[in-house]
Amino acid sequence: MMVEALVYFFVPALVGVLIGVASGLLGIGGGTVMVPIFRLAFGMSATMSTATSLFAIIPTSISGAISHVKGRTCIPALGIAAGLGGACLSPVGVWLAQLSPDWLVMLAAALIIGYSAINMFKKAFKLRPACQPAAGTDAAASPSTQSSGALEGSRTEVRVASATARISGTGETLADPSAVSGFSAAASGGQAASASSDDSSLSRKQLLQGAAIGLVAGLASGYVGVGGGFIMVPLMLSIIGIPMRKASGTSLIAVMILAIPGVIEQGIIGNINYLAGIAIVIGTIPGAVVGARLVTKVPERTLRLLFGCFLIVAAVMLMLNEVGIFG
After folding, report:
1. Cα 10 to Cα 280: distance, rounded to the nearest angstrom
2. Distance of CA 113 to the CA centre of its chain
3. How far apart are CA 307 and CA 305, in angstroms?
4. Which of 29, 48, 59, 170 is nearest to 105 (CA)?
5. DSSP-assigned states of every residue in 215-265
């Protein structure tokens, strides 16, 4: 009895913590790992694995999304748009999964996950490590050097203005102090405005793009039992152009919305193993909170590499199982 409790509750909860950390950190529901675990460790059918995964994804993503909203590492409007779009097609994905053989569902999951991983690796390798600035650029200069250059530039402008006033022989000041440094103020003001620009202010077109991304993620979510974050995060980065730190939290908001219709449908059909799902969720909820807090402390390049590795492992596990390597 003790051994059974250990196998069915403690171990899944422990694994759930790791899944939750990855969920909060990388912006995924965790289904890319839960589906293989339910399939391989619990011996569930493909349909039950995807259904139970979808059930466990909702509380996991809610936990991570709340932390991201509090930490302002997400774009709620975009997440809601993507979530509503995905909710429209999630039930369609569930219906298609009912008509498909187990091997096809798992193969589709592995291919989609693998493709997303490759895209993430490509993006990551294009970024330089945080400690390695581009050679030969102003970024390589030390802060003190840049500050000295800026100060010298301001002094030069003042000297030029004074000389011009003397040459004119009018004895009048060429311009008031604000005008003398007008060019510098305008330049610095423009940079400040750009830096302070809130990238959470998106256009209607970008929100519609988010909804379209959600449609694709919702179909995949219902079909293969994942949250769809592995699709949304790369597409939000490449199409909408938001940063990785914002994409992770935004994706979780979408996941917690788009998974709901699919879970309801799977519950009505009777495909969910609630006991196994709750065991995993006991760990994923606190894990997602931890992951969401770590997102601001991990460099974007590292986030992308972690995400890619995470997906590759899940895809390989699924494919090896479906060709009979695990028995």
Report:
1. 9
2. 15
3. 5
4. 48
5. HHHHHHHHHHSS-SHHHHHHHIIIII---HHHHHHHHHHHHHHHHHHHHHH
User: Which residues touch 196 (CB under 8 Å, ≥6 apart)?
Assistant: none
The winner for highest mean pLDDT among 60-64, 83-87, 148-152 is: 83-87
| DSSP string over 144-183 | HHHHHHHHHHHHHHHHHHHHHHHHHTS-S-SS-HHHHTHH
Q: What gap in Å lies between CA 88 and CA 13, rounded to an integer?
A: 31
CA distance linking residue 24 with residue 319, whole number of Å: 26
In order of 26, 77, 81, 145, 294, the CA distances from 73 in angstroms are 12, 13, 17, 32, 11
Angstrom distance (rounded) from CA 316 to CA 111: 9
Average pLDDT over residues 299-316: 78
143-173 pLDDT per residue, tens: 444 444 444 444 444 443 444 444 344 444 4
User: What gap in Å lies between CA 158 and CA 164, rounded to an integer?
Assistant: 10
H helices of the chain, in order, are 2-5, 11-26, 31-40, 46-71, 76-99, 102-126, 143-168, 177-180, 182-196, 204-224, 229-235, 244-269, 274-294, 300-322
